[in-house]
Amino acid sequence: MTDSTKTLCPYCGVGCGLEVSPPARSGKPVNRDSQGYPVWKVQGDREHPSSQGMVCVKGATIAESLHKDRLLYPMMRESLDKPFRRVSWDEALNAIVNRIQTVRFTQGAEAICMYGSGQFQTEDYYVAQKLMKGCLGTNNFDANSRLCMSSAVAAYIQSFGSDGPPCCYDDLDLTDCAFLVGTNTAECHPIIFNRLRKHHKKNNGKVKMVVVDPRRTATAEAADLHLAIKPGTDIDLFNGMAYLLMRWGKIDTIFIDECTSNFPAYCEVIRHYPPEVVARKCGITVEELETAARYWAESERVLSLWSMGINQSSEGTAKARTLINLHLMTAQIGKPGAGPFSLTGQPNAMGGREAGGLSHLLPGYRVVKNARHRSEVEKFWGLPVGRIAPERGLTVWEMILGLEMGKVGLVWIAATNPAVSMPDLERTKKALSRSPFTVYQDAYYPTETANYAHVLLPAAQWSEKTGVMTNSERRITLCQAFRDRPGEAKADWEIFAEVGRRLGFVEQFNFANSAEVYAEFTQLTKGRPCEQTGIGHQRLGADGPLQWPCPEEAGENNAARLYTDLRFHTPDGRAKFAAYHSRGLAEPPDPDFPFVLTNGRLYGHWHTLTRTGRIEKTKQMHPQPFIEIHPRDAGKLGIEDEDWVEVRSRRGMARFPAKVTKAIAPGTVFVPMHWGELWADSAEANAMTHPESCPDSLQPELKACAVQLVPITADIKATNSLLETAKSSMLSATPSV
Ligand SMILES: Nc1nc2c(c(=O)[nH]1)N[C@H]1C(S)=C(S)[C@@H](COP(=O)(O)OP(=O)(O)OC[C@H]3O[C@@H](n4cnc5c(=O)[nH]c(N)nc54)[C@H](O)[C@@H]3O)O[C@H]1N2
Ligand SMILES: Nc1nc2c(c(=O)[nH]1)N[C@H]1C(S)=C(S)[C@@H](COP(=O)(O)OP(=O)(O)OC[C@H]3O[C@@H](n4cnc5c(=O)[nH]c(N)nc54)[C@H](O)[C@@H]3O)O[C@H]1N2
Ligand code: SF4
Ligand SMILES: [Mo]
Question: What is the CATH number of domain 75-144+347-514?
């Protein structure tokens, strides 16, 4: 292999370019991790247009995680109380194929479910759609993006007629007002934040930064205005700002007349949101509300950025659409420095959307409900008319309900760790433990979800397989394999294709390599909003990363922004205003459960710790979980800094040492989402959360539930720290299988 390889960081949706080189290079000392193990050297790729050479701590340390605790061979067991035994690929795949056939003929294809991930490459996603939705004829493929991006997807489709973030990262340097809502960009999208912060600092006073978040995050620290609203009051805030913009005559009536629809219904809603009412509901002052509206009104170019504080809500789609409304009423879209920009979380959640990786989607930004879309895809896949089911498949939470009711015969989980990341975790785990047959395909062992598997399949991960990923600004990067695969690991798409062939679909899965898979997928994007027929592995290798839309005939890649012609993908070409009243939280606090629990991420850690929990530097940055409590609340409960606190919701409980801080609003508490049962004793955020979901996107309200706080006595604290020590020695003693 060549000395250095260009690729993409496999962590977050910023999608930074990386350049990696082998541990041993001529004339240089061998690069080693803190335990002396030789590791690939990682640095930012200066030529990558999205990141221009920058990386954060996660990208910089990724190589240290690649060799530790890997799942190396297929493993099987007859029941969850038995130990795993090593099996051959042949035996594992036969068992899966037999099970699929039995379930198909006894319960029907709708009893088969697959749960995938925004950490798949596009090729993995595409082959999984072809297998499940095409060949097997069930739309029961859902991805962890259901917990992540689905509200943004629904909002874009409803407002603009199609999914797809309309902005690009250059807009970060061009905006006059950055409006950040429910996003801790500084910790979760650090390289985007660096770029914005630089622009903000350079234009001190001229460029405004507003942050809307119940926590005073690192992002909020940098803002000109931090609106610490009560959780779940975003729609009140946006409607209240719209009220002021209208009162001040700061709306663009020509744009509204010529490019939008449904404005009268929106106006009817807005008149119910005068400043005094809104300020009270949001827990901010009228002056703060007016300042936010004034910054928006007075800025020539307004860019809003949002992520989980908006999406993970029982009114997530309504929140995102209400924010988009502000852009529509002021014509802040389709021009440099402006627009509604949802930040994708995972490295390839975007590619997943393009490949149809949610239970209501088909490849090429198509939807299963649309008969024309179904027949286009059936024809392209060489399948009989009517093979693709006309109704959306189960969402991941509905799969859990299906398991509870005994309606699921097989569940196949890949590249996600639901035994940590799903809401209402006790219920989720109980349902998983009732599964008659679970296949779990992951790169690492142990993980929490492996406890619920009958078959474990070792996945080749980033660095060991070649494929593409799309970042938040619609930019596609080739991730070239540069290391050997450990043990018998295989790429996800290869495993899906092999099962497809063994089921008799030889023609459909006749791919020699991932370049062929991607080339086939791009044909399904022809004429679609996410067209990428002009992109292929070879061109990406030669020309570097490219943004879609990129049709074959277009020589120059000229796709920085969508909707520059102010025509949208709706039937009438107009963007549609949404008329939503605020409904608030699905589980508001009450006298029994008086606090709102929110949760989120820390800079150095990634999700369920499968990688960052195994890297010294990131582990040291955030050694243990904690709960943030406002001094006023802590005082009332007699809680001091570092005291242990038990957090109880109607569904479950967890224990954390307290961090007493004014960074969190009174009445709200915050815990990180990262620690599952493998990494800490009883510190799971999702032990407490509930599955109530947005009716449009079916995305659960992971960001808020009602809890009570109970200080723990010294005895329990001692037991806990003993358990901690026992656990960490257990982990370090776990061998690779
Ligand atoms: N370091 C790190 N970076 C990551 C990840 C990671 O695990 N670690 N994961 C990636 C993924 S998949 C994702 S989805 C993104 C997530 O990126 P973010 O969305 O930025 O991350 P979170 O910390 O989950 O939540 C953001 C904020 O929402 C706020 N919030 C809670 N309730 C409300 C509300 O009602 N209204 C408003 N306005 N805000 C609210 C929380 O206080 C929190 O600060 O990060 C990506 N980047
Ligand atoms: N309370 C609460 N819960 C949340 C959230 C929250 O904010 N709060 N956020 C939600 C969101 S936005 C997200 S995205 C999810 C994330 O939750 P998960 O998807 O459960 O988190 P990860 O730890 O990223 O799990 C990815 C798994 O894929 C494996 N893996 C990595 N690469 C590959 C590969 O190429 N192939 C295969 N087969 N496996 C691979 C890793 O080893 C790891 O086990 O959590 C959701 N849950
Ligand atoms: S900002 Fe995201 S993509 Fe960039 S290096 Fe950090 S984790 Fe990787
Ligand atoms: Mo996410």
Answer: 3.40.50.740
